[in-house]
Amino acid sequence: MAVHAQQLAIAIAAMVALTGCATERAASPAPPPPSTASRAPWPSAPGPGGVDVAWSLVRAGDVVRVEVRATIEPGWHLYGLTSEYGVRPSLELDLEHPAVFVGPLVEPPAVAELALDELPITAHRGEVAFVQSIFAPGGAARVPARFRWQVCNDADTYCAPGVSEVTLILPGPDGRASGAWELAPGLTVELVPTRGVWSGSRDTPSAYPSIVVASGHEEPKVEVSPPSGVSAREPIFYEFSDDDAGPAPAEGVAVGIGLVGPTGGSLTVRITHLGATRTVVLPFAP
To answer: Which domain holds residue 55?
Structure first.
């Protein structure tokens, strides 16, 4: 990436190296247990029947668990995966070899109802989590993902489609995702280990892994939704240039955001750049 860890440490003087936290290799593909960490959902379908969607990633050995948690407005519902009426939710993941799916998309027990024309339907209200497990024996990987649904009012007189699109960065065997990840031409994101103390901070010096977003010459807007127990510092903007940038832009604007906290989990970053908004989900380990 255009912004290397050493350069960032000099530019921001803010944060410290990530500690190693290797996980054991699984003997056979088996879905990891559900995560209990709280999530801050992003609004993804405003208006009638609004649905908020949050994404999370958990790796156990060679299996990565992708969870999509939907929070549905009162008075509205999503159809279940086995419903014979309505549009069922779907999760689309653009996997690359050797990653493969482990089993089908899984949902919690749905509410059974009698729909129009007496077709049996299943529905979800309130909060519901859909889970897909992936056998991913390689290192960290970039996976475009889309969750689609149809939300209807409880009288089934009005329905509306919805979609949440993100870029998932699957964690590697060590639970991390080092390196630069391109979200769009001229827009990259990475977690950078750096050393130092956040400028002006009164906190005791400790580890501050940082998110770095590099773009063209327009300053991007960056919003961070950290896992439970982790907080994000105010962003620092600075210009950079690098003749050895690879796929990343050789010059532009970078945003450094320090992360503070003892826990790990999925880190959701929403970036608005050149009029477009993109969301990336990164694994985070302190």
So the answer is: 42-170
CA-nearest of 237, 206, 212, 230 to 284 is: 230
Of the candidates 190, 225, 242, the one whose C-alpha atom is nearest the C-alpha of residue 15 is: 190
Please give the full DSSP string across 52-105, using - where no structure is assigned: EEEEEEEEETTEEEEEEEEEE-TTEEEE-TT-SSSPPPEEEE---TT-EEEEEE
**152 and 220 together in one domain:** no
Q: What is the pLDDT of residues 105-127, one digit of tens each?
A: 999 999 887 666 677 888 999 99
Q: What angle do CA 213, 230, 234 make, to 5 degrees?
A: 45
pLDDT, tens only, 248-259: 556 889 898 888
Number of independent structural domains in the chain: 2
167 pLDDT band (50/70/90 cuts)?
very high
5: tokens are 């860890």
Residues 161 and 183 occupy one common structural domain: no
Asked whether the predicted pLDDT for residue 34 surpasses 60, the reply is: no
The distance of Cα 269 from the centroid of its chain, to the nearest Å, equals 7
